[in-house]
Specification:
Elements (H helix, E strand, L loop, with lengths): L2 H15 L11 H8 L3 H13 L3 E4 L3 E4 L12 H10 L3 H23 L2 H20 L2 H18 L3 H9 L1 H15 L3 H19 L3 H40 L1
Antiparallel strand pairs: 1-2
Length: about 250
Amino acid sequence: MRVSDQVVQKLQALIEQRNLKQGDRLPAERVLATSLGISRPSLREAIQQLNSLGVLASRRGDGTYIVHLPETWPQQHIVEPISLLLEEDPQYRFDVQESRLILEGGTAWYAAQRATEQDRAKIHQYFDEIAQHQARGDSAAAAVADANFHLAIAEASHNAVLIQMMRSLFDLLQYNVFLGRKKVYNHPVSADLLSDQHFQVMDAIDRQDAQAARDAVCGHIEFVIHQVRALDEDDARQKRATRLNRIDSA
C-alpha cells in the first residue's frame, strides 16, 4: 500500500476519533502531521487524494474542510488478489493492459475537456521525470513516474469514480508498468517511440482534443501489449533453440 493510502487511513481514524462532521475544518497541517506522526509532504498527498474524491476541500489561506464523509473510504481491496494472480501467471498482465485500455481511454477523454492549468502542469512534471530517470537508467524510478503520469491524467478527468478506480489500482499499475518497461524500454527504438506516445497524449490534453487524447493513450497501451507479446515470443524461441542445441551437442 502506498504511503498516501496509509495516511488516508490515519486521517479516517482521526476524523472518527474526534467525531468530526461535514463542514468541520481539519487541524492545521503542521499540527495534523505531528499528531499523525507523518511528514507534511505525505499528508499533503493524502489530502490531495481526498480532495480529488470530494471528501475534503482545501481553501487557500483558510484550511481544509470536510465536504463529505463516505460510508466506504478509499481502500486498496483490488490490488492484492490481482497481484497474486500476476505472480502465479505473468500472462495476467495482459488482462491488466486490456483493462487499462477501457479505463484510461475514458480518463484521457475527460482530462482533455476538464484539465486545469495545474492539472496540465502536473502531467508535464511527470513526463519530464520519466525522461530524467530513464536517462539515468533508473528503471524503478521511471516506472513510478510513468504510473504517476497516467494517474495524473486520471485526476485531471475530475471524475471521482474514475479517479478512485485508478488510485485503487495504482500499485498494480506501477508493477505492470515496471514489467513492461523492463522489456520494452531496453530497446532504444521502442524507448523513443514510447516517449513520443506519452508526448502525444499530453499534447492532446493540452490542446483539449478529447478524441485525440483517447486515441493516443489507447494507441500507447496497445503498442506496449504488442511489443511485450513479441518480445515474449522471441524469448521463447531463443529458449527452444538453446534446448535444441543442447540436445544436438549431447
